[in-house]
Amino acid sequence: MSLHLLKLCVGVDDIQELRDWQDQRRAQQLAAGETPRLRHVTRNWPRRAEEVLEGGSLYWVIKGFIRVRQRIIGFDEVIDPVEGTRKCGLVLDPALVETELQPHRPMQGWRYLEPADAPLDRQGGNAAGGEADLPPEMLAELRELGIL
To answer: InterPro entries, alphabetically (predicted)?
Structure first.
């Protein structure tokens, strides 16, 4: 059974900004003659790494809501050039999959996220109900209140 990770996306205001940042990073790698590879470096290795690699994703919290996920396709050992310490590079699939908004409070580091607690992938608005025209934050609040 797969297991997910949850992490704050610090310094990013929306999904497009995350996408732009990751595109820029891949372009820098190509310009340097490297094979493009998206990695998010974190201090600690998941003890349950095998479960994460069985289809797990990194769910990003942006501005107080889980908004998007990326499949985790591997782990790399990264040596911090300043400290010389061993860190974990979460190797990410480049595809960003928007999720239903789910509120989440700030936290440090990453946390495990059980599949039952993960938000569903966003399927687009429900045109019949007019949901497509509502801001995502309002949709999340209406869902939390049980109105939608």
So the answer is: UCP032025 (IPR008320)
Instruction: In whole angstroms, give the CA distance from residue 17 to residue 9.
Output: 10
Q: What is the pLDDT of residue 146?
A: 63
pTM for the model stands at 0.83
Comparing C-alpha atoms, which of 39, 3, 9, 5 is closest to residue 106?
A: 9
Single out the residue of 93, 98, 94 nearest to residue 121, CA to CA.
Answer: 98
Residues 6+ apart with CB under 8 A from 74: 53, 91
Position 148 scores a pLDDT of 62
Share of the chain above pLDDT 70, in %: 89
Cβ-proximal residues to 144 (8 Å cutoff; 6+ apart), any chain: 103
Task: Kindly list the domain boundaries of the chain, sorted by start residue.
Answer: 4-144
Q: Which amino acid is at 127?
A: A
Cα of 25 vs its chain's centroid, Å: 16
- Name the E strands within 22-106: 38-42, 57-62, 65-79, 86-92, 97-103
Percent of the residues in the chain that have a pLDDT greater than 90, as a whole number: 79
